[in-house]
């Protein structure tokens, strides 16, 4: 996950993480570590909730250019 996130940010992209509803804690803890780093606010965000609803909202948003699942 770290190398994929680093590559996306290095290319100038913002990243929205949508953790698994079954196991959200590792992603939430990783996000807390990122918040204490030197990354500007908003470069990496995390959204929790129903994956289908979040995917629909992201796919239909005018600013979102691509969605990639890992």
UniProtKB/TrEMBL annotation:
SUPFAM superfamilies: ALDH-like
Pfam families: Aldedh
Top-level taxonomic group: Eukaryota
Protein name (database record): Aldehyde dehydrogenase domain-containing protein
GO molecular function, one term: oxidoreductase activity
Domain Aldehyde dehydrogenase: 5-67
Entry's transmembrane regions: none
């Amino acid at each position: 996950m770290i190398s994929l996130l680093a590559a996306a940010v290095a290319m100038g992209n913002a990243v929205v993480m949508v953790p698994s509803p079954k196991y959200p804690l590792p992603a939430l803890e990783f996000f807390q570590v990122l918040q204490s780093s030197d990354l500007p606010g908003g470069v990496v965000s995390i959204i929790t909730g129903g994956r289908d609803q979040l995917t629909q909202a992201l796919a239909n948003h005018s600013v979102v250019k691509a969605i990639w699942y890992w």
